[in-house]
Amino acid sequence: MNIASVDTPVGRLGLVEEDGAITQLLWDAQDSGERTALLEEGCRQLSAYFAGDLSEFDLPLQVAGSDFQRAVCDAMLAIPLGETRTYGEIAATVGASAQAVGNACGANPIPVIIPCHRVLGATNLGGFSGAGGVEIKVKLLRHENAAGLLI
Fold first, then answer.
1. Which of 35, 100, 121, 137 could in theory staple to 117 by disulfide, Cβ–Cβ 3.0 to 4.6 A?
2. Element (H or E) spanning 72, and its range?
């Protein structure tokens, strides 16, 4: 397993590569193994995102988990920068309950790149499983100038 890390406004983020795909984003990670071309590109894209120069990541991703987990991740990937969806809206897309979608969002192995921070509760922000919790979710949404965000 190869890990490359990059300093960002939300902390030191590490990308994990396995079999030619990004499989995880880790908080407070340190480099480990070989720093491959894919990991270099992933770190470059994260830096560009936080600099405001990238609106969509273009990296090969591999989400471990059930078909449902992958479907929720696909639905999150479809949310454009600066927009949000509710757990209920994602639930309607994937044919599940909002609670199940919330659990899948919380289990997202590649946060930021798979933008679980763009998924909100119907009446509140909902949670965020990354280091720093909801405060980091708010920081990411503010960074993206999320439409309609009143915080």
1. 137
2. helix 67-77
Choosing from 43, 73, 105, 116, the catalytic residue is: 116
Radius of gyration of the chain (CA): 15
**pLDDT value at residue 34:** 92
Give the count of beta carbons closer than 10 Å to the beta carbon of residue 110. Answer: 25
Query: How would you class 107 by CB atoms within 10 Å of its CB: exposed for 0-12, middle for 13-18, buried for 19 or more?
Result: middle
- In the chain, the largest separation of any two C-alpha atoms, in whole Å, equals 44
- pTM > 0.85: yes
Nearest residue to 110 (alpha-carbon basis) of 19, 44, 15:
15
Tell me if residue 105 is catalytic. no
- Tell me the per-residue pLDDT of 26-53, one tens digit each, with 9 for 90 and over: 999 999 999 999 999 999 999 999 999 9
pLDDT of 148 reads 56
Cβ pair 36, 1 in contact under 8 A = no
Q: Collect all residues with Cβ–Cβ distance below 8 Å to 25 and sequence separation of at least 6.
A: 13, 14, 15, 16, 109, 110, 111, 112, 113
Q: Return d(Cα 25, Cα 112) in angstroms, integer.
A: 8
Burial of 148 (0-12, 13-18, 19+ CB in 10 A): exposed
